[in-house]
Design goal:
The chain is 50% helix and 16% strand. By secondary structure, the chain is an alpha/beta fold. It comes from Paraburkholderia hospita.
Amino acid sequence: MSGEVSSERQDAAGTPVLTSVRSGVLYVTINRPDKRNALNRATLDALRESFADAAHDSALHAVVLSAAGDRSFAAGGDLREFDALRSDADAAALFDHAAAALDAIRATPVPVIAALSGTALGGGAELAIACDYRVAAAHACIGFVQATLAITTGFSGAADLFALLGPARAMRVLAKARVIEASEALTLGLLDDVCAQGQSLDECVAQFVKPFVGRPPHVIRAMKQIAAAHRSALSQATRVAERAAFVATWTAPAHWEQAQKFLDRQRTSAASGSKT
């Protein structure tokens, strides 16, 4: 691909992921703003396909992953859809399905930049840190809030978080389960850049990708190959432990108690909104 190209997904109403290529950069956009860009099966599948396609484009310099709207990058896994998954086998299949999508991002042979236009929560935070870099709007925030649902990371993001922060700090972030504002997340190391006052996210991302666009694609791919090898060596053992921990916590009664409270709050909020 070269120049400006839009995917056939771009014009499809209700399509969960949109793609386009401009000046050697692939733009992948999660397109569920009415659901706060929650990650259901269809969205995870579309992300996996989009990044698998990118692996075959030798002209790309970088990929930018963003989301529609300015409220949410991704509000985590779509609990309304996943609520029926109750068995160990169901939980393991959910983990593997989400991990496959994030692995397609990790395996992309050029740098992937997550552009956070709003909140990245739970599985959405895991999606963000599966990328090589994270650039955020000033109002954006990120939260590993899985513990509020009495579960551990379920999309394979633990190894990424532990690599970014180290085991001790990562465990505290998971245990606190706070939503972290952009400035604090930058200091902590979860973000790589935050937009300046008055600067748009598009402008900030354009500045961030310049070093990658300014080098030949094969050189960028060589750099990413080294980085990917390092990342893979660190994450292999963690993945097995993370999967087992997720299955154990997902199927525990404490999780379903918290999940039911969460869904009840969503229904109440939706009902209140429909009356106004």
